[in-house]
Amino acid sequence: MDVKWGPLTTHDAPAWAEFAAAVEAVDRTGSHATVEQMAERLANPLLNLPEGTLAARRDGRIVALGLAPVRQTADPVHLMELWGGGVHPDHRRRGYGRRIIDWSLKTAPMLHERHYPGKPLHLHLHVHDGNHDLAKLADEAGFSPTRVFQSRRRDLAAPVPPPRVADGVTIVTWTPALDEQARMVRNAAFREHWGSTPHTPDSWKRLITGTTDFRPEGSFLATADGTAVGCLLTHYREADTAAAGVREAWIQIVATVEEWRGKGVASALIAHALASFKAQGYGTAGLSVDAANGTGAVALYERAGFATFKSVTTYVRAF
Predict the structure, then answer these.
(1) How far, CA to CA in Å, does 196 sit from each of 70, 77, 83, 222?
(2) Which CATH superfamily is domain 4-142 in?
(3) What pTM was estimated for this model as a whole?
(4) Residues of the chain whose pLDDT is less than 70?
(5) What would be the CATH architecture of the domain defined by 151-310?
């Protein structure tokens, strides 16, 4: 049967999950997702399903996929990410990957101009270690390797340092009443971070604290005189546990406002979180960090016992 190309629909969560599982089985990206999680992604209001998605199907199954959602803000640059999973291992080297990238180069500028006319656009493509075919396609399409992000992991069976609180700082567990403070801390702390986009209240709820992955009992704020100066927010993915056999607490965000950096706030948050994770029955803790991060985050995570287990290179093409 011939391959048929067309957009995704809201009914494609099971097909997308099946496709993603086939890609992960070969590429070992460490990314697993349930049908429920895929349904959440398809419901993203910033993802234009008819125009911002492209899927190749054969015998009713997805064999190649690309998505180009717009971002919640463009301050000062609109950073669009091409994602979705690429090409099924059984259907590679047939030109499908090239077709998806060519489609994205036409589609992304069109969607961008509709949402953020006059703003500069940078299209990001994330390439996992060892995916030489995708790296080659990115090079040929005019993308440049720009940044490396490390996924790091810590075994909670190893001794966990006792929580230490910086002078004048109190660590409290996240509550809905503190959610807006956490968002403001994250936005302030990540203002100068490469590739970061400020969260709106809607995107924050949808992607961070309103998703089924969010774990409020494993998320914390550091406060001083009643004001949040740091936060650590945690996600948990059941699909990862099913694949690896180990419950992992994934630290989605660690943030400290600039005027409180260097005072032990992030160290206190991490130590507190690790002790909590262990008490809650997690086997490992993980996080991702920009290898060129200028705030000292890499050294901080190394001191806390996090070691790199995979890397992703972000390729960028400016328009």
Answers:
(1) 14, 10, 16, 22
(2) Gcn5-related N-acetyltransferase (GNAT) (3.40.630.30)
(3) 0.91
(4) 1, 84-85
(5) 3-Layer(aba) Sandwich (3.40)
